[in-house]
Amino acid sequence: MTIVLDAVTAVLFLAAACTLVRIVRGPSMLDRAMALDVLLAVIMAGLGTSAVADGVTWVMPTLLALSLVAFVGSVAVARFLTHHVPRPDEPDQGADA
């Protein structure tokens, strides 16, 4: 069982490292927001894996809270970016608007 746990841990660390690279490199704010959401999912997978390996149940409320934070954060970023990105069919109003 420890070989499987070590393999899962290695894969999760690799996923977290790749996600951190995407957060740093960008190129856009949407890429960074999506990478942050993926990083939260990787953290939740790690917590779930450790809960199964140790046989504890207190992690479930923590996972629920993290999933709610991830969802609300993703929705907030999406709403923020849609309100600040001009649509292609809108004319440019210049600096005086």
How would you portray this structure in words?
This protein is mainly α. It is built from three helices and no strands. It has helices spanning 2-25, 29-54, 59-84. The longest helix is centred in the middle third of the chain and has 26 residues, at 29-54. The radius of gyration is 19 Å and the shape is elongated. It is found in: Cell membrane. It comes from Actinomadura violacea. Pfam families: MrpF_PhaF. Keywords: Cell membrane, Membrane, Transmembrane, Transmembrane helix, Transport. Belongs to the CPA3 antiporters (TC 2.A.63) subunit F family.
Give the strand tally. Answer: 0
First-to-last CA distance: 64 Å
Strand content: under 5%
Mean pLDDT level: 86
Q: What oligomeric state do the depicted chains represent?
A: single chain
Which structural category fits the helices and strands?
A: mainly alpha
Shape: elongated
Q: How many DSSP H or I helices?
A: 3
Order of secondary-structure elements: HHH
Instruction: List low-confidence stretches.
Output: none
Largest sheet: none
* Fraction of helical residues: over 70%
Query: What is the C-alpha radius of gyration, as a whole number of Å?
Result: 19 Å
Membrane topology: Multi-pass membrane protein
Subcellular location: Cell membrane
Transmembrane segments: 6-24, 36-53, 59-81
Organism: Actinomadura violacea
In short:
This protein is 78% helix and 0% strand.
